[in-house]
């Protein structure tokens, strides 16, 4: 018997899913057989935080009243409209968050639904700099017709949708179009002015021209993987494993200050860091670097050694000014025994040889991390003074006599 005595349930299970069991039952008020569903709420508190959260719901006079989180900034398209370019690392984070939401939904027993992910269904939390997927807006029955779609919508739709076929791979395609529009600031397939031109490209799964403008290259190559037939398109889970969306746990969240008097070198270094999803700020000389250090905390200083005020003197000054927690890595074209001695004396934690890769930066940071840990273990401390200075021989770290 049900909670209101209207329905009489049997033990005959007529359907089931991940959380639900449906039993054959009888509706006493209408004199007909029905399916009586029981939903298991165990673990319901385990919400996916990349999906908009429903707070409360109620049904009143034929209407469903739903209370959700508020995203005053609106969807990702309106949020980015008229703003300065957002750094690639932000889109890498947003892209991974959306992939997690899509992969989670694909793991549920919702095979009759196609999400048809679009920019208008991705909401931005401006204060947190986060995005969430609004599944209340994106869910649609796969039997819906996609004919007579306006051309601007058709430019964002998966080719298979326009050909009358639907499936989960459409969501991955929609995800790629959101990121592509975000990183380039342009609507995909803008080069197509009519349906004939558009369908000709889509039939060949040819990517839009704007793809070549997507930066960094690692992200561009991942997006390129989507413009293939559905059976060849990677899943959301597979895309999360791509290099563009994997963050080295040892470097995640670090903010680098890049110091070099050569503008080209600064640009190259910042691009190497940006391609790994790392934040960086550049400075052209010692004075500018010191000024920036006073405005916000930095985790790592990458400084060229050969400059008018060389990297050694810059490091000494920074340590004397009390910036003892920042890791300082010297950048040089030549590694000599004298260099190994001087960078320790100056207070650098490690050095790399240019041209360097992100792997070398990671190894230098690992050396620096281990050096600091060993220093603390030995109880040496890291107090610094402008007058009484000594060097820990086994550590890549400057210490001070008290």
TrEMBL record:
<dbReference type="InterPro" id="IPR001789">
    <property type="entry name" value="Sig_transdc_resp-reg_receiver"/>
</dbReference>
<keyword id="KW-0723">Serine/threonine-protein kinase</keyword>
<dbReference type="InterPro" id="IPR011006">
    <property type="entry name" value="CheY-like_superfamily"/>
</dbReference>
<keyword id="KW-0418">Kinase</keyword>
<feature type="domain" description="Protein kinase">
    <location>
        <begin position="1"/>
        <end position="246"/>
    </location>
</feature>
<dbReference type="GO" id="GO:0035556">
    <property type="term" value="P:intracellular signal transduction"/>
</dbReference>
<dbReference type="InterPro" id="IPR000719">
    <property type="entry name" value="Prot_kinase_dom"/>
</dbReference>
<dbReference type="GO" id="GO:0005524">
    <property type="term" value="F:ATP binding"/>
</dbReference>
<keyword id="KW-0808">Transferase</keyword>
<dbReference type="GO" id="GO:0005737">
    <property type="term" value="C:cytoplasm"/>
</dbReference>
<feature type="domain" description="Response regulatory">
    <location>
        <begin position="255"/>
        <end position="369"/>
    </location>
</feature>
<feature type="modified residue" description="4-aspartylphosphate">
    <location>
        <position position="304"/>
    </location>
</feature>
<dbReference type="InterPro" id="IPR050588">
    <property type="entry name" value="WNK_Ser-Thr_kinase"/>
</dbReference>
<dbReference type="Pfam" id="PF00069">
    <property type="entry name" value="Pkinase"/>
</dbReference>
<dbReference type="GO" id="GO:0000160">
    <property type="term" value="P:phosphorelay signal transduction system"/>
</dbReference>
<dbReference type="Pfam" id="PF00072">
    <property type="entry name" value="Response_reg"/>
</dbReference>
<dbReference type="InterPro" id="IPR011009">
    <property type="entry name" value="Kinase-like_dom_sf"/>
</dbReference>
<dbReference type="GO" id="GO:0004674">
    <property type="term" value="F:protein serine/threonine kinase activity"/>
</dbReference>
<keyword id="KW-0597">Phosphoprotein</keyword>
<protein>
    <recommendedName>
        <fullName>non-specific serine/threonine protein kinase</fullName>
        <ecNumber>2.7.11.1</ecNumber>
    </recommendedName>
</protein>
